[in-house]
Amino acid sequence: MIDSHTHIYAAEFDDDRAAVVTRAQEAGVTHMVLPNENLESIPRLQAVQQQCPDVVSLALGLHPEEVHADFGEVLAQMRPYLDTLPCVAVGEIGIDLYWDKTYRDQQMEALDTQLRWCVDKNIPFIIHCREALDEILWVMDNFGQSLPQGVFHCFAGTVADVDRVRSRGDFYFGVNGVVTFKKSNTHELLPAMGLDRILLETDAPYLAPVPHRGKRNEPAYIAAVRDCIAGWLEVDPQQVDRVTTANACRLFGLALEGGHDNH
Ligand SMILES: [Zn+2]
User: Fold this and answer.
1) pLDDT tens-digit map of 101-146
2) Which helix H or strand E contains 141, and what residues bound it?
3) N or C: more exposed end of the chain, with fewer CB within 10 A?
């Protein structure tokens, strides 16, 4: 399995990061993608990448909740890292209007700038979308045919929302522990997404799946997400494993295990 969205560089893992990586590998996680949050998190991503270069890949971007009045300056400082770090994606980027709409326009502009980075570098995006699908699709539609590939991580919404995203291109949907929550409707979205468009993720340290709900999440728990998806789609867990791993390899340009290169 590939954990396509995990923050194991966060301070929550400072005491036992090596053990967390070992547990992930023992649980069958072969690779992890680390999405960035702000300027301060970049050295943390770099440090984890240097500790376990074969196991992790980096994404670089400014998280929408980190977009404030000074975002232009922050993005100018961040952009050079895209050329010096081995990044497989721009992320996590997007718009979040759940808690605070103060910087809505700035978030839209920051998304536009960072989607341009994807076009320039020819790499995919990792989108964080919360209560903001209209705004995100509005920004994306300005790119027309030049819009790169990408994933909507932790996707929440309706079947109609899935269809709106899919009508824009062959985008992927990140599914995490939320699918195991009793009150979540994520399982209703899975058939509309299609297994060939689903990526497994944890969003660790957040959103631990049942039966770990409420605890610190970690990549090893991703098996619970895989098994839950398999149950709802009535397929073998191994098939979910195989197809979602191939999806992540295709999107992020990672080499499949066993020598199959997906390019
Ligand atoms: Zn995240």
Assistant:
1) 999 999 999 999 999 999 999 999 999 999 999 999 999 999 999 9
2) helix 133-141
3) C
Q: Tell me how far the alpha carbon of residue 92 lies from the centroid of ligand 1, in angstroms.
A: 7
Our CA dihedral for 104, 106, 110, 113, rounded to 10 degrees, sits at 120
Separation between Cα atoms, residue 42 and residue 85, nearest integer Å: 10
* 3-class DSSP assignment, residue 217: coil
Place of tokens 């979205």: 189
Helix (H) or strand (E) holding 51: helix 42-51
With vertex at residue 72, the alpha carbon angle to CA 165 and CA 130, rounded to the nearest 5 degrees, is 30
Please compute the mean of the pLDDT values over residues 67-84 and round it to a whole number.
Answer: 97
**CA of residue 34 to ligand 1 center, whole Å:** 8
**Cα(145) to centroid(ligand 1), Å:** 27
Q: What distance in Å separates the CA atoms of residue 222 and residue 225, rounded to the nearest whole number? A: 5
- Report CA(4)–ligand 1 centroid distance (Å): 10
Q: Which domains, and CATH codes, for the chain?
A: 2-259 (3.20.20.140)
State which amino acid sits at residue 205.
P
93: closest CA among 7, 161, 35, 10?
35
